[in-house]
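User: Show me sequence and structure for the first protein, then do the same for the second.

Assistant: Starting with the first protein.
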Amino acid sequence: LYRLGDPEELEYMGIRDYIGNHSICLIEWPERGVGVLPTPDIRVRIETDGSARTLQIESASALGERIAQRYQADER
């Protein structure tokens, strides 16, 4: 959403068509959509250290917790 000038522009983009119970929507720069975007179920943080990258998943809801646990179980 880095090009977004105002969160209300999301309505004109049809954001509600993308977000639903049976969809996965990854949003970069979500702070630009505050007030229009729903609370996320998970937050993904990608950190770089030279050529290496670290992926962190943080849950923000019960569904997000189940997703994070599933990811962690797959990593083992």
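Switching to the second protein now.
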Amino acid sequence: MRTRSRLIVAVSLALPTLASAKMEDVSCDDSARMTNMLTEVLGAERQGIGLRDPETMLEVWVTRKSGDWMIVQNYANGTSCIVAMGEHWEAAETGPA
């Protein structure tokens, strides 16, 4: 019981920090490091990819467990930036338009 109480207190204290960290951590980084952070640290999976122009590609990353999503813009120079993020991702089923 004591261990459970300590865990609840620790999580409660960390939640405000985690919530505020989402927007503060939005930045650009080397594409390889960005991919590693998304997959290894956040547990996200790339759900879609599209060419914006000859120099720019967009990716949609989703963390299935939490439903968080991020749109990452990749540049030809090897830099990637998180340009949008949100919650409650719901995949659309493909079918006739």
